[in-house]
Amino acid sequence: DTGVSQDPRHKITKRGQNVTFRCDPISEHNRLYWYRQTLGQGPEFLTYFQNEAQLEKSRLLSDRFSAERPKGSFSTLEIQRTEQGDSAMYLCASSLDGSSSGNTIYFGEGSWLTVV
Amino acid sequence: AQSVTQPDIHITVSEGASLELRCNYSYGATPYLFWYVQSPGQGLQLLLKYFSGDTLVQGIKGFEAEFKRSQSSFNLRKPSVHWSDAAEYFCAVGAFGAAGNKLTFGGGTRVLVKP
Pick from B43, B102, B104: which is nearest to A110 by CB? Predict the structure, then answer.
């Protein structure tokens, strides 16, 4: 059973460029989450999918951010017109609704974004 | 809305000594509580969780945590720390179902282990 996989692990981009991160959840997990973590802080919730439906979005998710999970499996998080304040680690997580441990959320290794 | 406070930003402990990390939460219903550990530049690894039942829960790597409803606390403990326990530890409260589906994290406690 592989864990949550994220790609790329590190990305350096120039301000104003677009970036996309991919997340592959644990196989058969139907819930998928995105969090953002800045240096010295705890992770902050961005958005959540149940299968392919995006059910909740944080106010942190500005209109430059878009997340998709088109077939209810992998997900992408795109940031358009990046700003230096977007520099952070973007964490993906997944869980299995309906299981006895359905509220246990497993995290990936994260994708580091540096905007220069 | 739920919130989590980890009062200690840094803790330094000698190898072999005991460790206790504090966590206080605010949540209107029965909480789901978690402790995660994060090594530098890495993702979060689940140490243990509390959903219901026995208020003393055992986790991986020799960690345990005790849920105290009257104190709104969920403190993490380890009897004897190993050098490999140096990391950042996050406490989180989960809101699931009608309240949404997300974890709210504390600010973390960085643990340094002295030889």
Answer: B43
Where do the DSSP E strands lie in B1-115? 3-5, 10-14, 19-21, 24-26, 32-38, 44-50, 56-58, 64-68, 73-78, 87-95, 102-105, 109-114
Of B32, B100, B108, the CB nearest to A42: B108
Task: Tell me which residue of B64, B77, B80 sits closest to B14, measured CA to CA.
Answer: B80
| Residue pLDDT tens, chain A, 116 long | 579 999 999 999 999 999 999 999 999 898 999 999 998 899 999 999 999 999 989 988 899 999 999 988 999 999 999 999 999 999 999 998 765 566 788 999 999 999 99
Alpha-carbon distance values, B83 to A2, B14, B59, B64 (Å): 27, 9, 18, 18
Cis upstream peptide for B40 (omega within 30°): no
Task: Mark yes or no for CB contact B101/A33 under 8 Å.
Answer: yes
Q: What is the mean pLDDT of each run of 10 residues along chain B (115 residues)?
A: 93 97 89 93 91 91 95 97 96 78 92 95
Q: Would you call A45 and B41 a contact, using CB atoms and an 8 Å cutoff?
A: no
